[in-house]
Amino acid sequence: MNNIIHHDSATKHVTGESVYINDMLVNNNMLLGKVVFSKHAHAKIKKIDFSEALKTKGVHAILTSVDIPGKNQMGPIVHDEFCLATDEVTFIGQAVALIAAESKEALLIAEQLIKIDYEPLEAILDIETAIAKNNLIAPPRKIERGDPETAMNKAPHIIKGELKTGGQEHWYLETQTALAVPREGKDIIIYASSQNPSETQAIVSEVLGVAKNEVEVEVKRMGGGFGGKETQGNHVAAWAALLANFTRCPVKIHLFRDDDQIMTGKRHRYFSKYEIGFDDNGKILAYKVELNADAGSSTDLSMSILERATLHADNAYFLPNVRIIGKAWKTNLPSNTAYRGFGGPQGIAVIENAIDRIAIFLKKDPAEIRYTNFYQHEKNNTTPYGETVENNRLFLMYDKIIESSEYFKRRKEIEKFNDENEFYKKGIALTPVKFGISFTTSFLNQAGALVNIYNDGTVLVNHGGTEMGQGLHTKMLQIASAELGISPDKIKVNATNTSKVPNTSPTAASSGSDINGMAVKNAIDILKSRISEVAVAEFEKLYPSDKTLKENIVFENDFIFDKQNPSNKISFEDIVKIAHFKQVSLSSTGFYKTPGIYFDREKGVGVPFFYFSFGMSVSEVMIDTLTGRHTLLRTDIIQDVGDSLNEDIDRGQIEGGFIQGVGWVTTEELKWDKKGNLLTHSPDTYKIPTVNDIPKDFRVELLKNVPNPGTIRKSKAVGEPPFMLAFSVWFAIKDAISAVGNHKIEPEFSLPATYEVILLCSEKLKKK
Amino acid sequence: MNNIVRFVLDNKIVEIDFFKKQELKPTTTVLNYLRSYPEHKGVKEGCAEGDCGACTIVVAELDKNEKLVYKTLDSCLVFLPMIHGKQLITVENLAIEGTKEKILHPVQQLMVETNGSQCGYCTPGIIMSLFGLYKNHNNPSREIIEDALTGNLCRCTGYQSIIEAAQKACTVKGKDHFSEKEKDVVKMLKNIAENKESLVLSTENQKYFKPFSLEEALIIRLENPDAIIINGSTDVALRQTKKNEHFAKILDISGVEELKTFYEDKDCYVFGSGISIEQVKNFSKETLPALYKMLSVFGSLQIRNIATIGGNAGSASPIGDTLPLLFAYGAKLKLTSGAGDRVIEIEDFIKGYRQTDLGNDELIKEIIIPKTDNSTKINSFKISKRKDLDISTVSGAFKLKLEQENVSEIILAYGGMAATTKRAVNTEKFLTGKKWSKKNVEEAMNIVAEEFTPLSDARSEAEFRTIAAKNLLMKFYIEN
How far is CA A346 from the centre of its chain? Predict the structure, then answer.
């Protein structure tokens, strides 16, 4: 397959031609929409008065919950999320009213004139309070194997602890945006920035009270998603649709950056408690963990995310006796949502920290304790939920990265450096990732495609996945090109549209290329079969002496030929014309469902994942114990992507995912005041990595010669797994802080390791 | 009266008469102006506060030798009259029409080849920063590349591919199709510059003055003491873009050439208040290393290209990056008005939180930094959540003069610890006359902790600030 192909929009990106929704011009009647949101974390709405605001010049409509023609609901799974607040608000940033106006200025004036009387109520603003008040959002989840109680009691050593991991703002460069254009009758088209056009369609049809066949949703591209547009993109689409439906004008809503940060959900922060029993060699005998998620004010995807957190509580380690409890707590904050890793990072953080503590306790190198506990090949290779870890790459990767990163040599050098320096300390860490690929809600593992061949020999591929920068369309184009045997420039991948491929799953769970690639292939297989029949008939006419069999027809290099008689050939363009004249359909849908996966939530057992993705990284940092500043000196990564569909794109996903993870574990800090106002609501105070924050020495390697059986062209998913490689940075920082106390006292640590955490931890160790 | 803003865009002179173009006002940002045209929607708004660089543009202006100088700016912070007399270059101007397809500019071509774009939303801004780099540097070092890209956030790529594109593209001394057209552009810009009359832009509820001489500026200042003074507007523009504040009157002194001079005297360096932070940074590299160090982590190149040293001092922010240093250097300001000049110590100039001694007929003319002898050490430190493109949580600038081993003079100026830049006077007293030793410094650190009662905010808790302030003294000790 042609592996060197650039992003299919690259030229448009660099010339500024690529169109995002905020760049679209519909007609001169287009209005701008604005969301008026709650300034209280929890309050009764006593009265909304917008009579003055409505008089503002240029204002066309102001809507509240009473103006919703359909259901006042936009929760994706559990219907517990209002589209517009009715008589109560449950978080700061909750939509209360909508304004449509001709200009931004008019919107701002009108907003100032809307009077909302609130009666503040008591608010729950952290997990601890929610736990104290027993404010669960849904029944807990549990996965258990063996006899964790007995094994724990018998274990020679036990470590107990708690760990807090912070939330994370997606900070997609393009804030939430939607453009709704009313058409004749009840029909409406939504240009959405959504990872889940079918869900956007469902929510819009619900709030407007119209059927799904009256709502068309199109997604050309997103300016970044990262999970933040899996459900949150639906909201802005629903609001734009309400305004457009009411005014009968096209309405665009493009959230201002601060509003986006205040209003939308983020990665769930977790507060976890654990107990780990182990022997003198650091072998884990028992593990008990309780994962507590801050769900925010409504369910959204919290339970699915919690499920993935419980399914990743093991990370790469065999846990013979284990109990994993997952609880999601309701608080008065924006409903937390999907974010790259989807609970995986939160589950993995706890076991990794526990293992790190085992190493400190036993005075051994953490890498060795990790190695000791890796899933094995023949035995000790089943997860707590009973799935066998197949095609385990952990040992292969460990050997490679220990050698390529010169881990043990550098460890010695670091020890020397730390002995010689009072105020600067270095640290190094190796962390693995095992990440399950598939939606854990098994039915979502399906995808559709629609492939059209036009009679000039060009091809238009439609599929259910969305493009958010990850290069999905490029990979689909490559697959279509390879399967049809025609050059990529004859193929285009269309904007994702609900009228082309219906009932699609979100582009999430790293599954985009796996499932959509198979659906595209399926459609192409059908088309090839039809074309092959035409070709057989044609070859019989052209080459009557050679008997051509359908199964011998090959599509390659823009031609179709008979494998037995390669000189018997016809161009793709010609055969398509002939097929058209012979009244053969040149359009086909394709479909795929991932085989053999299921998960029983009640029992906590099953085979939820089609396969596992593996990765490993080693990072070295230096900290300044006087200021809390850390510097990322070097990172080595090995990632298993099977037979890569596109090495450049995969490398981009690995580097980008890792750096996003580095942000999560270091500088990205969400901070609220006592009333529930987000303090870090702009890039002024919420700090994602800049170009200076990447490792000074950054080495990324794709594991070679590891075809993945059963997937599209033997590839593996790559979207989420690299995110969790950033734990190596967090543990390297912990290692460096630990050096302040000569590794005799364990630092109390949390995530992210901001300059504040690093400095305060170091100070405590200095005092001891 | 000169009431038309003129600049070069798309190879021609654009004229804006705000009286006729009612949808625009003088403080309309270049970003919003460009985005109001279908052919200029490549430029993106990512944050409207100069923190993400998605709106990066390049402005070419004439230097003293009538050569074009290319600078990257955040267009979300630039008001239209600020680009009067300059060439505005957008992402749409980089590729040129070829016979079959567009011919990409080298920086664009390399970004395609290295897969430097993913979602593409930050890409136009990145392209413009790379273009600025391309025009100004040949075979730039990694450090220069990083500096050029610090002001551009990308959430997708992890930047590695973008660095690679920069390394591969910037190898031909900035030659491109812009080089070929420079003569025409210079001609157009000179044409615009012929009219030296102050720009006076009036709309229904906004009046914007842009004088081109100090004399004119002082007259306008005298007649309009209520006008907000801007130069780079990197601070003031935020009040409009983020807080929707309306400015009734603005005095833009960015066109006053007399304020852009730099000279070295026998015992001091004199910076015109209108010199950009980037220029100050470059001047100070050899001469004032502590200032250079601080300015290296000042905002981003886009911000430094337009923010001025006079503006940073005049805004009197407790977290302004240059103020602690100006305290440590014992800098003086020369203020000027129609009545003449006066010189004031920086410490007397700062009156309170964002309050200064500037009279309502005065402008800051010069910042005078005395030279120091070899027995004097000056160093600066900035602590922020993220190393680059961040506002300081705590900053410190310290001056130490030793006689034998004893402290004969010490200035410990802190930012972020109080409502203004503030000296740790008790600590200074304690150390004066004492031996400059680790033991004494450790004792002094405890006094620093007692001298301030800092705030807790989004950047850090008070406890962190207190410890950091103490520790900076130790850093000063070990780095000397």
Answer: 13
Contact A224 B150 (CB under 8 A): no
Q: Is A230 annotated in the active site?
A: no
CATH number for the domain harbouring residue A534: 3.30.365.10
pLDDT tens-place string over residues A309-331: 999 999 999 999 999 999 999 99
Contacts for A182 with CB less than 8 Å, ≥ 6 apart: A188, A244, A245, A248, A249, A250
Query: A5 lies in a domain?
Result: no
Domain boundary among A571, A593, A615: A593
| A4-55 tens-digit pLDDT | 689 999 999 999 999 999 999 888 899 999 999 999 999 999 999 999 999 9
Q: Are A655 and B161 in contact (CB < 8 Å)?
A: yes
The C-alpha of A685 sits at a distance from chain B's nearest C-alpha, in angstroms, of 6
- Across the range B41-50, mean pLDDT stands at 97
Picking from A210, A242, A263, the residue at the C-terminal end of a domain is: A263
Query: CB neighbours of B313 closer than 8 A, spacing ≥ 6?
Result: B273, B320, B322, B323, B326, B333, B346, B349, B364, B367
Residue of B nearest to A25 (CA): B38
User: Would you state the structure tokens that stand for residue A184, as one six-digit string?
Assistant: 């004749």
Q: A383-410, pLDDT tens digit by residue?
A: 999 999 999 999 999 999 999 999 999 9
Q: B22 pLDDT band (50/70/90 cuts)? A: confident
Q: Do A11 and B153 touch (CB under 8 A)?
A: no
In a domain, A217, yes or no: yes
Q: How sure is the predictor about A3, in pLDDT bands with cuts at 50, 70 and 90?
A: low
- Best of B145, B156, B380, B389 to substitute, by most chain A Cβ atoms within 10 angstroms, is B156
Nearest CA in chain A to B462: A756
Interface contact flag, B472 A627, Cβ < 8 Å: yes
- In angstroms, rounded to a whole number, what is the distance separating the alpha carbons of residues A722 and A658? 5
Is A293 a member of any domain?
yes
- A226 and A352 housed in the same domain: no
Check A694 against B158: CB less than 8 A apart. yes
What fold does the segment set B260-479 form as a domain? 3.30.465
Summarised one tens digit per residue, pLDDT across range A165-176 is 999 999 999 999
Query: Which CATH homologous superfamily contains domain B4-93+180-252?
Result: Beta-grasp domain (3.10.20.30)
Same domain, residue pair A390 and A477: no
Residues A649 and A538 in one domain: no
Kindly list the domain boundaries of chain B, sorted by start residue: 4-93+180-252, 106-175, 260-479
Same domain as A708, residue A652: yes
Residue A468 with chain B: CB contacts under 8 Å:
119
- Given CB atoms, is A4 within the 8 Å cutoff of chain B? no
Quick check: bond before A752 cis, omega within 30?
A: yes
Contact status, residue A607 vs residue A598, Cβ threshold 8 Å: yes
| Residue entry with tokens 């000056």 | B378
Selected residues 554-613 of chain A with any CB under 8 Å from a CB in chain B: none
Could you tell me which chain A residue has the CA closest to the CA of B158? A656
Q: Which of A13, A423, A655 sits opposite B160 (nearest CB)?
A: A655
Tally the C-alpha atoms within 13 A of residue A378's C-alpha that lie toward its C-beta: 0
The pLDDT tens digits of the residues spanning A481-526 come to 999 999 999 999 999 999 999 999 999 999 999 999 999 999 999 9
A·B CB contacts under 8 A: 230
Q: Which domain holds residue A715?
A: 270-440+601-767
Q: Which fold has domain B106-175?
A: DNA polymerase; domain 1 (1.10.150)
- Tell me the C-alpha distance between A735 and A739, whole Å: 6
Residue A133 lies in a domain: no
- Collect all residues of chain A within an 8 Å Cβ-Cβ radius of residue B122: 173
Helices (H) and strands (E) in chain B, counts: 17, 20
Determine if the pTM surpasses 0.90. Answer: yes
A334, A468: one domain: no
Residue A97 has pLDDT above 90, yes or no: yes
* pLDDT at residue B480 is higher than 80: no
C-alpha distance across the termini of chain A, in Å = 60
- Chain B residues whose CB is inside 8 A of the A12 CB are 120
